[in-house]
Amino acid sequence: MRNGHTRREFVARSSAALAALAAIPALPPGIRARLARRDPAVVARPFDLHQVRLLPGPFLDDLNVNRRYMMGLDPDRLLHSFRVTAGLPSSAEPYYGWEAPNNELRGHFVGHYLSGCALLTAQTGDAAVKVRGDALVSELAKCQQANGYLSAFPEELFDRLKARRGVWAPFYTYHKILAGMLDSWTLGGNAQALEIAKGMAGWTREWVRPLDDTQMQGILRTEFGGIGESLDDLAEITGDMSWLEVSRRFDHEKVLAPLAEGRDELTGVHANTTIPKIIAAARRYEITGEQRSRDVAEYFWREVTGRRCFATGGTSSGESWKNPVGQLAGELSWDTEESCPTYNMLKLTRHLFSWTGDAKVADYYERALFNGMLGTQHPADGEKIYYTPMASGYWRMFGTPDHGFWCCHGTGVESHSKFGDSIYFHDDTGIWVNQFIASEVNWADKGVRLVQETGFPARDTTRLTVHVARPTRVALRIRLPYWLDGEPTVRLNGRGVPVSTPAGSYLTIRNRWRDGDRVELTLPMKLHAHAMPDDPTVQAVMYGPLVLAGKLGAEPLRAPPTPPRMTPDFDLTPETRPIAVAAIKAPSGDLRSWVEPTGRPLEFRIVGQEREIALVPFHTVFDERYAVYWRVLSS
Asked: Which of 442, 456, 492, 513 is 20 to 30 Å from 594 by CA-CA measure?
């Protein structure tokens, strides 16, 4: 018994919530309005999660692990600090880590959790998840103050921010809760969440009102992240463009001005709270058409994906971009590739693809999704990862039950709830097939349902079946990835289709489709090296879009658990220090001189060295040491 309610009673305020779910249209009002918009900036519109369903495969498996993790959390424990801050009773044991009652980011995970519930409900139609999210919104409404303020910590932290006294990141945390409320409305049709969000934004307007621009720019030196994006979203949702002016108060010109002028001044800058500032610029462009905002977003994206990313598509070292642009070899360490920047780069990439329809943008999305995101959740218990070490001899270190709740824990709950959100895009005439993920999309406006059956990447084939009630003319635009090994094989209803489209672009099939028409593709993959831009002897091995990791074994890691999780007091010991990996001596620059297939799908081995090492897709390596980058020397 906690707060006068059993857990069963919490979920069940239930029959009413389930009835409300049944009454919600296929698309909630917020989404219907967004899909109806014909933004001139948008070339390719993403299908909403409600329109996409995952089919059996690695992404659905991963999503189901995340669902079990999310539904295993105790709502009363999540709400504890909110209730205490609001002066309401709570006898629940709080969660710890970054949700502990003495942590200045407490409450941030609850915002992510709200977004995760909304995303997962939209992706799957899961009624129990919607009940959980709506119940949390209802309880948080009781914690909102009359002035609109809602947080798990008191306003005193914002007083310290205004006075420029030491404080962690109050607006960063406030944004997560605001974003969770907006997602609960936009994706789930929860009208109460929208009213809460308006109140929170109103409090923000009053907080910034008396501050001049110099004061605000000083305040923005403290981490604050993406609140500008949420305020822009609120302007679009409500039609009240005055929220854009509140959003502009969070334009961090020290970051934005150089990017607008085509200058990379990102060295030493914190990655995770910078990328959301760029996402806010992207949203501003989509709403207002401001060219400067698009210039900021596109230049930033090119710099980071082109010269500040590892082979995995991930970025950052020790949470920052430590070195000058293009100097990555010296950044390999145990604390590379924080997960949050990958989450945010995927969000930004989704925006850029919608403006350009560029296959190179979708290529990056695939690389970051498979290598930088898919392996960041432990398949046994759904715990999330903070850093993904790029230095050899380390292992993936996950959170422990009740003691994680880091920023990456929160973005992970979202990321592993929405794998369908960038598989397909469309315009008025056709569909882009961007990712080879088993799924189906229902384009109700055109009366078209497209089903993709694939075992990719374990198999290099995919089949697209069109379902229509009557013959319908629609263009299918299928990405031909940069990594293709020669020409793809394409068949339409069993008959060969000549392909003259180069890799790194789209094969377009214009057809008057009949029900059951199918397109079958074979997309041959090849081994290729991904070398560091500043040291070509430091290389990762890739097969198609997949980074391959060398399996180095679990010894001599401690047990249990094996390997050690990242507890709050984690430290390297003699048993857990990284092990050295010998350089590769190769007679030529050709990977085939030291890497060969085993004959089993997606399995290779390093040969001709002191030690034979198995190579497998990086996202499948758990609970043992690995190597991603190799020093390759001429023999």
From this structure: 456
- Residue 560's pLDDT band, with cuts at 50, 70 and 90, is low
Which of 207, 227, 250 is a domain's end point?
A: 250
Choice among 56-60, 116-120, 152-156, 557-561 with the minimum mean pLDDT: 557-561
Judged against a pLDDT cut of 80, whether residue 22 lies above it is answered with: no
Query: Does residue 464 lie within any of the structural domains?
Result: yes
Examine the pLDDT at 553 and tell me if it is beyond 90: yes
C-alpha pair distances (Å), 81 with each of 8, 45, 88, 199:
21, 39, 10, 20
Under 8 Å between Cβ of 50 and 74: no
**Could you give phi then psi for residue 66, rounded to 5 degrees?**
-65, -40
Query: Given the structure tokens 């990712």, which residue do they identify?
Result: 435
Please say if the pLDDT value at position 159 is more than 70: yes
Q: Are residues 185 and 244 in the same domain?
A: yes
106 shares a domain with 78: yes
Rounded to whole angstroms, the Cα distance separating 1 from 7 reads: 7
Alpha carbons within 13 angstroms on the beta-carbon side of residue 371 total 30
pTM to 2 decimal places: 0.94
User: What confidence score (pLDDT) does residue 29 get?
Assistant: 57
Distance CA 182, CA 173 (A): 15
**3-state DSSP call for residue 343?**
helix
Query: Per the structure, how many domains does the chain have?
Result: 3
Which DSSP category does 369 fall into?
A: I
Is residue 633 classed as helix, strand or coil in its secondary structure? Answer: strand
What pLDDT does 5 receive?
42
Indicate whether 281 belongs to any domain: no
Place of tokens 């369908």: 420
Question: Would you say 245 and 299 are in contact if contact means Cβ atoms under 8 Å apart?
Answer: no
**Does residue 312 form part of some domain?**
no
